[in-house]
Amino acid sequence: MDCPVMDYISNNYYQQKEANDVIRKFVEKMTWKTDEVVLDLGCGPGDVSSNILYPLIKNKIKQLVCADKLHKFIEYAKISYENSHINFKILDIENANECSLYAHTFDKIFSFLCFHWVWNKMNALVNMKSMLRNNGEICIHYLLNNPNLEIYKKMDPEWQIYTKKTMQANMPVYSLEETKTIFEKAGFRVVSIETNKNKFTFQNIASIITFFTTIKAGYTLSSTLLNCSVNVLSNISAATACFIETRCTGSVDASSTSSTSSVPRTESVISSFVRIPETTTSLSISTKSSKVSSAIS
């Protein structure tokens, strides 16, 4: 199996912990029927889907479909976790044609620490809504802000050229209010927002660098650059995570909306998986949807 996949799995403790916390908190708040079909979007190598999400919802569902755009993750997940109740698919949430194959298929959509990587969040939300059945619900957990962007800003120009693509991939950056507006424009009505602070620690700098290296499978940075990034982090302050739960009462098509070591703290910005900070702030948004007739630009 591809080494980066195994490295990712061995270093995603915090993703697992946060997913577990979010699922336990929001699953019981959702409205469940019998034999529901659920999508886990951005499932990665499938360990969180199989070991955390499925055990907590297995008595409520008929099928768990897990999707990711990275082929190497899905290949690993199929070999390791697929069974009669859990299957894995390659899917790009920003691709309307791919998502149309699952129109009105799912009762629930979950997504953990994935949505911040999505470039066109409006299109992604519209696609999600198109895949939901009537009275469907979604629960999304992602970083509101991205520490990588602050690192990039503070780097010397000679280093910035090596991370340009990574920074572009992590754009755009939205404020909390802008994020709320995007969900509303996609047809979701915000019900509640709550924030939580989480503390993360690393045994040493080496463990931080390993975490940094494996956290984004689509990009590779040199260890020298990673060391530079970790040093830069010490000049920044506190990261933010974001939980978003949405409830859907209708469908919508794509053309309309309705260290114990002293770990450095980082400032958060919308899109990075990389949570090097000692302390992060999480945000919860609950929403409901209604049909909206105005067009999405």
Automatic annotation (TrEMBL):
Q: Write down the InterPro entries for this protein, in alphabetical order.
A: Methyltranfer_dom, SAM-dependent_MTases_sf
Q: Which residues form the signal peptide?
A: none
Q: Which residues form a coiled coil?
A: none
Q: Name the species this protein comes from.
A: Sipha flava
- Could you identify this protein by its name? Juvenile hormone acid O-methyltransferase-like
The Methyltransferase domain covers 35-158
Q: Which Pfam families match?
A: Methyltransf_31 (PF13847)
